[in-house]
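Thread: quick sanity check before group meeting

JM: Hey all, I'm pulling together slides for Thursday and realized we never actually wrote out the predicted structure for the chain we discussed last week. Dropping the sequence here so it's in one place. If anyone has concerns about the input, flag it before I start.
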Amino acid sequence: MRYEGNIYRPPSEWKSYLLQVTIGCSHNACTFCGMFKDKKYHVRNLNEVMEDIDMAKQAYKNVHQVFLCDGDAIAMPTSDLLKILHKLHRTFPELQEVATYAGPRSTLSKSKEELKLLYDAGLRKAYLGVETGDDKVLKDTCKGVNSAQMLEAGQNLVESGMELYAIILIGLAGKERSADNALATANMINQMQPTDLAAMTYTPVPGTKMYQDIEQGNFHVLNDTECLIETRELVKNLQVPDLHFTSNHASNYVSIDGVLPKDKETILHILDKAIAGNIPKRNSFQRGL
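JM (edit): ok, ran it. Output follows.
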């Protein structure tokens, strides 16, 4: 298979065949993110993508899961995406799921009818970098949308039938707005109604605008206890039925995996013990992106 630059995928896509259909991220302006900085966004040549699918058939024979790379494959023209999805299902009759990252602006650029067409053609899961429900934090981090637009993007994906995997960043608001951030994010998720919610923890990335803000004293990073308190406030206020909640990424201080509301009390109990220092937390050497 042919790839350009570093390839990123969600941890849950570790079994998937990674098919690069776009290069880089169509937005690529978030102040906290160091991904795709070595690439200029563009859509790959469709014939080359089709050739890669044929190469994958020779190499893998059977493929059950596909993840469309890079950072925002849903930004490519709908007609090209449909051709790729149809080719994948013709080539791999056993294929069960195709997934992609979905940027909020690129998602909003597509009509609800287009998103439904993509779902019907086999695009069944979208990973949306929600990050936060706080308007000020979205603006400060140059996410490119406000909270109402982020909510609309998520709701449109859910309405299409896709399984929505929302990703948020604990600590993205810094010390000053931590409590407000937790509540605003929980409120957004409650309205968005994703099937999955992954809470990662903000980790400073050298070379990013936010890293410069930290060095200049303009942004104050949460410590381990403060991150856990923010996570607790988030979980306490979540009200989505049958929400698969995870906080088990390498960036997190404590690993959590459960279904809300069924496991809410158990999760809150784990967080309380971690906040009190009664269970071990990952240290800086154990954590990563």
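AS: nice. DSSP finds ten helices and ten strands in the chain. The mean pLDDT is 94.
JM: adding both to the slides.
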